[in-house]
Amino acid sequence: MEQSRAASRLRIVLGHLGSPSALNIVGHPTSGTVSSASFHPQQFQYSLDNNVLTLEQRKFYEENGYLVIKNLVSDADIQRFRNEFEKICRKEVKPLGLTVMRDVAILKSEYAHSEKTVTKVQDFQEDKELFRYCTLPEILNYVECFTGPNIMAMHTMLINKPPDAGKKTSRHPLHQDLHYFPFRPSNLIVCAWTAMEPIDRNNGCLVVLPGTHRGSLKPHDYPKWEGGVNKMFHGIQDYEENTARVHLVMEKGDTVFFHPLLIHGSGRNKTQGFRKAISCHFASADCHYINVKGTSQENIEKEVAGLANKLYGLADSVDLKDIWMFRARLVKGERTSL
Ligand SMILES: CC(C)CC(=O)SCCNC(=O)CCNC(=O)[C@H](O)C(C)(C)COP(=O)(O)OP(=O)(O)OC[C@H]1O[C@@H](n2cnc3c(N)ncnc32)[C@H](O)[C@@H]1OP(=O)(O)O
Ligand SMILES: Nc1ncnc2c1ncn2[C@@H]1O[C@H](COP(=O)(O)OP(=O)(O)OP(=O)(O)O)[C@@H](O)[C@H]1O
Ligand SMILES: O=C(O)CCC(=O)C(=O)O
Ligand SMILES: [Fe+2]
Ligand SMILES: [Mg+2]
């Protein structure tokens, strides 16, 4: 109660921010003045006013760029995602537009099609079962705290990190997801990533550098790893070696929401199991596309355009924007811009 009153006061203080929810004042009007010593408007630039996050959770995200919600997705839902993923691996279903990735270390192996050859599937927006993840009310309830009410699912993945074949290729180098995205503003983008089983340092949990979302987008390129690097797994070349890394140990169903500038990666899978997580990047439909030519993102755009050319015969000059518009899906509210 105390918190929601504080929140409604904040809405008044922060009215100038201009977000629709910031102007939508609910609760008790307050005529008293608010001491600037107890409120720091500038600290609330990464999340929107809402009655979902506690003040503590909101402050944590503002400071750290991520927020873990325990036990958010049910076992029953996770089992359904798992079943559908297995069907995809066995080629019993072939969703339109889906990209199937194999780990660079096992490309030449002789496995039959099974979950043992698939490292990741991307762009499952046409798969009803998997896409349910992006529409779960419990997920969207939190997403809205960052995107506001008009929500687009922009990018989807189910990651099946394989046992490391000895070359450390199962690692994901430290990166910022915004490197891959030609839309802004970054503060209206958030990733939801749900552990489909217990995940810790043994099977390669997410590793984050807290607070790095407050920095800028850094140049990315392939890390110079001896054992090889997966296609498009770009990493940051010159991050602060001294920045504290935090390993996110998660239980099945736990979900982390994180900012697209947060530097993160994941470690090697030292177990014999395939470590599974499902995720979606959401953005406010009010975001706009940008032209990345002349920016540090040009290298990834060229690579994606090259792939589109090879796989679909699209012109090399194809604008990334068109690909994003085509696979983006509205999940709540109105499709205003993206
Ligand atoms: C925020 C978010 C976006 C962050 C990220 O997810 S970062 C990682 C994003 N990664 C991607 O988007 C990768 C997309 N992957 C793909 O499109 C596919 O997996 C492809 C790389 C095109 C492979 O497609 P596939 O149908 O398997 O085609 P092929 O078996 O004929 O292979 C075509 C050529 O690609 C090579 N390849 C396949 N998988 C990998 C790999 N994991 N690492 C490095 N190279 C790879 C393969 O050796 C082949 O090369 P060539 O024989 O043509 O020289
Ligand atoms: N010193 C480093 N230089 C560059 N990248 C690093 C460094 N340390 C970690 N990383 C990146 O961060 C990711 C996670 O690191 P982490 O230390 O958890 O994984 P790991 O080295 O595979 O396993 P572990 O340290 O638990 O044996 C790695 O995949 C790697 O991409
Ligand atoms: O290893 C993971 O599950 C996270 C991968 C990741 O950060 C990404 O694909 O952008
Ligand atoms: Fe990522
Ligand atoms: Mg390490």
Automatic annotation (TrEMBL):
The keyword tRNA-binding does not apply. The keyword Glycoprotein does not apply. Its cofactor is ATP; Fe cation; L-ascorbate. It is an enzyme of class 1 (oxidoreductase). GO terms for molecular function: L-ascorbic acid binding; metal ion binding; phytanoyl-CoA dioxygenase activity. Belongs to the PhyH family. This is Phytanoyl-CoA dioxygenase, peroxisomal.
